[in-house]
């Protein structure tokens, strides 16, 4: 059995990524799977450099924010930007980093586990922990029967639940966690799944971003996402209209 540490939604938050990578079980894992939305945030270049430096132990999956960064960097993104930091982050990336993100797969299967960002069929489809079985059945249409576990991110809220004899795991978010403070990640072992949080001094992390990032809106960004924590109730209510299909 391969031991897998799943890191989703890093969003270019280097101190949070370093905190998770410093966890003993992450360092000991056979694989580190990045479940999308890796670089869109206040430290995109540094985040990608750190992760690429880890070599072949890292398995990359592209999220919607990574796709949008590529489109912004290449001048093909025509919609309203989802936030203020994304266009800035896209402008910081080196060409090799744009190429890296552009070439990432949207799903990766290891054994009987499928890793994706939002759902296996769409990188921004919204499904929640309390979505009905009928909704889950809809987004799993066409999924091979031999896929027994689906691991995702996207909503920034960790959970594990059964869906018609499949296990569904959301690893939460490393860089912008909702529901409880602290970078969240998941550990998959032969004994099942563990939802974890890494310790992080949010005040020190915010100070680092303010001193190390050149993003003009970094004081507002750290105030909203590092020094404040959205509750799962707030996030679920905000996402529910998009999750009804």
UniProtKB/TrEMBL annotation:
Q: Protein name, please?
A: Metallophosphoesterase
Q: Which domain of life is it from?
A: Bacteria
Q: Which Pfam families match?
A: Metallophos_2
Q: What sections of the protein cross the membrane?
A: none
Which GO molecular function annotations are given, in alphabetical order? Answer: phosphatase activity
Q: Which GO terms describe its cellular component?
A: cytoplasm
Q: Which organism is it from?
A: Kribbella sindirgiensis
Q: Which residues form the Calcineurin-like phosphoesterase domain?
A: 4-189
Looking up SUPFAM superfamilies in the UniProt record yields:
Metallo-dependent phosphatases
Stated family: Belongs to the metallophosphoesterase superfamily. YfcE family.
């Amino acid at each position: 059995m391969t031991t897998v540490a799943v890191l989703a939604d890093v969003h270019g938050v280097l101190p949070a990524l370093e905190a998770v990578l410093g966890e003993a079980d992450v360092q000991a894992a056979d694989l580190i799977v990045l479940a999308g939305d890796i670089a869109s945030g206040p430290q995109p270049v540094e985040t990608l450099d750190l992760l690429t430096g880890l070599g072949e132990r890292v398995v990359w999956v592209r999220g919607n924010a990574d796709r949008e960064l590529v489109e912004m960097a290449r001048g093909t993104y025509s919609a309203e930007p989802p936030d203020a930091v994304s266009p800035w982050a896209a402008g910081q990336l080196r060409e090799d980093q744009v190429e890296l993100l552009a070439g990432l797969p949207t799903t990766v299967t290891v054994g009987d586990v499928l890793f994706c960002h939002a759902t296996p069929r769409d990188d921004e489809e919204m499904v929640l922990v309390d979505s009905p079985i009928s909704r889950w059945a809809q987004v799993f249409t066409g999924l091979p029967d031999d896929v027994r576990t689906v691991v995702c991110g996207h909503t920034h809220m960790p959970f594990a639940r059964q869906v018609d004899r499949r296990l569904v795991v959301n690893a939460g978010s490393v860089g912008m966690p909702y529901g409880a403070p602290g970078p969240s990640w998941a550990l998959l072992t032969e004994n099942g799944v563990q939802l974890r949080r890494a310790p992080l001094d949010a005040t020190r992390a915010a100070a680092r971003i303010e001193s190390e990032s050149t993003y003009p809106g970094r004081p507002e960004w750290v105030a909203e996402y590092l020094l404040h924590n959205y509750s799962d109730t707030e996030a679920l209510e905000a996402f529910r209209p998009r999750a009804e299909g």
